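Support request from a user on the community tier.

User writes: "When I paste my structure tokens into the form, the page sometimes reloads and wipes my input. The last time it worked, I copied everything first. Here is what I submitted, just in case something in the input itself triggers the reload:"
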């Protein structure tokens, strides 16, 4: 991997994952299959996220300008490329059936495509730290946003189970993942620290 790592998505079985770098190269691990990437293409902006389809037979890549690239059985449902964004896109999350997805920008703006519903956002609100990622609830009727300081913003049927907002942390938070039940979540910091909330168990950290 020559370009900075941009994102990782687990396969549905949990036996593999896809890693992408900022240049859009996809690296499959374990039972994750390779379905294509944008390596070598002239990108307007770097890739910042990857998300897997429910079947694991495809994935989406998202770039910081809101561009979306679909591979395998991942459908293209639209993008924010060409829209005037206040802040770059930093993450994405698919709906449970893969019929849509959300993009989130650093200012908390949320962009919904396909069958992804819009349930709210902190876009336009003053944030202590930028939003760095998002995750959808199991029902697809809500989502969480996470900020670099560990602040959590819950919308739709997403429950709030706690956050790091206002607490001192050694390194910024870079992502989150929900539990299968949707009754908890994990936050991960850039130094490998793991923070658990709700029914999320702690199984170790870096």
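"...and here is what came back when it finally went through:"
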């Amino acid at each position: 991997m020559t370009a900075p790592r941009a994102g990782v998505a687990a396969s549905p079985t949990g036996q593999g994952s896809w890693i992408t770098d900022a240049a859009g190269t996809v690296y499959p691990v374990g039972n994750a299959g390779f379905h294509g990437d944008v390596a070598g293409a002239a990108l307007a902006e770097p890739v910042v996220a990857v998300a897997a389809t429910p079947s694991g037979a495809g994935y989406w890549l998202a770039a910081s300008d809101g561009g979306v690239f679909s591979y395998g059985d991942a459908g293209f449902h639209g993008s924010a490329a060409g829209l005037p964004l206040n802040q770059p896109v930093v993450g994405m999350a698919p709906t449970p059936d893969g019929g849509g997805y959300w993009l989130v920008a650093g200012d908390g703006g949320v962009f919904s495509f396909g069958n992804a519903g819009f349930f709210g956002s902190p876009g336009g609100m003053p944030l202590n730290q930028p939003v760095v990622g998002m995750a959808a609830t199991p029902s697809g009727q809500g989502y969480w946003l996470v900020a670099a300081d560990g602040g959590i913003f819950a919308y739709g049927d997403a429950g709030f189970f706690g956050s790091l907002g206002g607490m001192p942390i050694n390194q910024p938070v870079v992502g989150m993942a929900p539990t299968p039940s949707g009754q908890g979540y994990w936050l991960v910091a850039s130094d490998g620290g793991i923070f658990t909330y709700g029914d999320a168990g702690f199984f170790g950290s870096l």
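Agent notes: The reload is a front-end session timeout and is unrelated to the input. The radius of gyration is 16 Å. The longest strand covers residues 5-10. Escalated to web team.
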